[in-house]
C-alpha cells in the first residue's frame, strides 16, 4: 500500500500528540520495504493532519492522556492503516508505518487483551484469502512489455488543463493483522473490498479523497491539501505537471529512479520496481512516459511475467511482477490479456514469512475509472458531483 499514491509530504513530529493518540506499541509484522510502500499509499489519507485545529488536538489529549514513561517514537502500529477522522498523526522516520488510532477500523495490529476482546477480525475486515500462486518466468517478458507499452500509448487521455482535475476510481483492499501478544497467535485479515475515489489537480496543490470503507473518511470525504508550503515535486511526490518534465528514454529514466530512491526499501532493484508501480497505479501520466516506465521496469533484475492472475474486481490478466527477496511478497501489475491495458495491482506472499502464510493475498486493487474532469468531486461524463 505502498503500498502509494497522492503526494508525499515531510511533516514534523508532534511527540505530545502522538503520545496521547497512539495505542500500545506493537512489533512490526511487515518488511521495511512493504511498510514504505503502504506508507506512501496512505499519505493520501494523512494529508489532513496539518489542517486540524488545535482544539481537536486538545480534545484528543484529554481523551487519551500520555502513558507514563511511554516513548512516542515506538508507538506506531506497523501496517498500512487508516485512522480516526479528526485526529492528528505524525510520521516516524523515513520508512515508517502509519500510526493507527485506538478504535479505528482498518489495517491495525491488535495486541494482548485487545486481540482477545476482539474475538475475530478487526472491524471492516475479512480473513485474507490464500491462493495457488502461479510461478513467474522471464520467457516472453520483452514481447509482453512491448505490447503493454504500445497499449499505454494508444490509451492516452486528454491533457488536463489548469483548473481541471484528474479523477481515479478504484476498488481496494489492504492487509490487516490481528495478534494476541500473550499467546503469540496471529490471524491475517484484509479490509473488505471497498471503493476509493481521488481527485488531483495537475499542479498537485489541490485534491480530495472519498474512501469511507477504510474507516478514515466520512461519506463526503476529506481534502488532500496540506498546511503550509507545498514541497518540490519528485518521484515520491509527483504531480502531473512534474511528470510531464521527465524523460521518456527508458535507460535514462531508470537511472534517475535508482539515483533518487537510493537507500530506500530492502534493495535498490525492489525499490525501483515499487516506485514505478506507485506512479502507474494512482496517477494520470503522459502516454509516452507510461510506455517508458514499463520498458524501464523490464530492465530491473528479477522482473518476470505471470501468465494468469486476478485483480481486486476478479478480472483475469497477465502480470509484470517482482518478488521482494527480503520480505517474500510479490507485487504484480495486472493487465488485460487482450488489450494490455492496466487493470490493477496484487501483492501476494510467496513464502511463509513474518506470520503470513505463502499464497496469502495481502493487497488488491482494481482501477475502474481514470478520467479528466472540470471540477473537484465532479464525476466523469455526467458533470454531477460525488
Please indicate the percent range of residues in DSSP E strands (runs of 2 or more): 15-25%
Helix and strand composition category: alpha+beta
Order of helices and strands: HHHEHEHEEEEEHHHHEEEEE
Number of helical runs? 9
Radius of gyration from CA coordinates: 20 Å
- What is the rounded distance between the termini? 24 Å
Mean pLDDT: 74
Largest sheet descriptor: 12 strands, mixed
Helix residue percentage: 10-25%
Low-confidence stretches: 1-32, 34-38, 43-118
Shape type: globular
Secondary-structure map:
Layout: H1 15-21, H2 32-46, H3 54-63, E1 109-110, H4 113-118, E2 125-127, H5 141-154, E3 165-179, E4 186-191, E5 194-200, E6 207-210, E7 222-223, H6 240-243, H7 250-260, H8 268-281, H9 287-297, E8 304-310, E9 316-323, E10 329-335, E11 342-349, E12 361-373
Q: What does this entry look like structurally?
A:
The chain is an alpha+beta fold. Helices cover 24% and strands 21% of the residues. It contains nine helices and twelve strands. Strands 1, 2, 3, 4, 5, 6, 7, 8, 9, 10, 11 and 12 form a twelve-stranded mixed sheet that branches. Helix 2 packs parallel to helix 8. The chain is globular and about 55 Å long.
Short summary:
By secondary structure, the chain is α+β, with helices and mostly antiparallel strands. The protein has 9 helices and 12 strands. Mean pLDDT is about 75; it is low at about 1-30, about 35-40 and about 45-120.
Question: What are the key terms here?
Answer:
386 residues; alpha+beta
Amino acid at each position: 500500500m505502498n503500498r502509494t499514491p497522492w503526494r508525499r509530504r515531510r511533516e514534523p513530529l508532534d511527540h505530545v500528540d502522538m503520545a496521547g493518540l497512539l495505542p500500545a506499541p506493537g512489533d512490526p509484522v511487515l518488511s521495511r520495504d512493504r511498510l514504505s510502500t503502504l506508507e506512501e499509499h496512505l499519505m493520501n489519507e494523512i494529508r489532513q493532519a496539518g489542517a486540524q485545529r488545535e482544539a481537536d488536538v486538545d480534545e484528543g489529549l484529554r481523551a487519551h492522556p500520555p502513558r507514563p514513561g511511554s516513548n512516542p517514537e515506538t508507538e506506531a502500529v506497523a501496517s498500512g492503516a487508516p485512522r480516526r477522522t479528526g485526529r492528528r498523526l505524525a510520521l516516524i522516520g523515513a520508512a515508517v508505518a502509519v500510526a493507527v488510532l485506538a478504535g479505528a477500523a482498518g489495517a491495525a495490529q491488535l495486541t494482548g487483551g485487545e486481540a482477545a476482546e476482539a474475538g475475530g477480525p478487526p472491524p471492516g475486515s475479512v480473513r485474507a484469502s490464500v491462493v495457488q500462486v502461479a510461478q513467474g518466468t522471464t520467457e516472453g517478458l520483452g514481447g509482453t512489455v512491448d505490447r503493454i507499452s504500445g497499449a499505454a500509448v494508444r490509451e492516452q487521455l486528454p491533457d488536463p488543463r489548469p483548473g481541471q482535475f484528474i479523477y481515479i476510481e478504484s476498488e481496494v483492499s489492504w492487509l490487516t493483522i490481528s495478534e494476541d501478544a500473550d499467546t503469540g497467535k496471529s490471524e491475517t485479515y484484509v479490509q473488505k473490498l471497498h471503493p476509493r475515489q481521488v481527485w488531483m489537480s495537475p499542479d498537485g496543490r489541490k485534491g480530495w479523497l472519498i474512501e469511507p470503507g477504510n474507516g478514515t473518511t466520512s461519506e463526503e470525504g476529506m481534502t488532500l491539501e496540506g498546511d503550509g508550503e507545498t514541497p518540490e515535486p519528485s518521484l515520491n511526490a509527483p504531480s502531473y505537471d512534474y511528470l510531464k518534465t521527465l524523460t521518456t528514454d527508458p535507460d535514462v529514466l531508470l537511472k534517475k529512479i535508482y539515483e533518487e530512491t537510493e537507500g530506500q526499501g530492502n534493495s535498490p532493484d525492489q525499490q525501483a520496481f515499487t516506485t514505478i508501480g506507485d506512479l502507474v497505479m494512482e496517477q494520470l501520466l503522459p502516454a509516452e512516459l507510461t510506455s517508458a516506465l514499463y520498458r524501464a521496469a523490464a530492465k530491473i533484475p528479477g522482473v518476470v511475467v505471470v501468465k494468469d492472475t486476478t485483480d481486486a474486481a476478479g478480472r483475469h490478466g497477465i502480470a509484470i511482477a517482482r518478488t521482494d527477496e527480503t520480505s517474500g511478497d510479490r507485487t504484480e501489475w495486472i493487465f488485460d490479456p487482450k488489450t494490455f491495458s492496466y487493470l490493477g495491482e496484487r501483492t501476494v506472499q510467496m513464502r511463509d514469512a513474518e506470520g503470513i502464510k505463502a499464497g496469502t493475498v495481502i493487497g488488491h486493487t482494481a482501477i475502474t475509472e481514470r478520467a479528466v474532469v472540470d471540477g473537484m468531486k465532479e464525476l466523469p461524463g455526467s458533470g454531477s458531483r460525488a
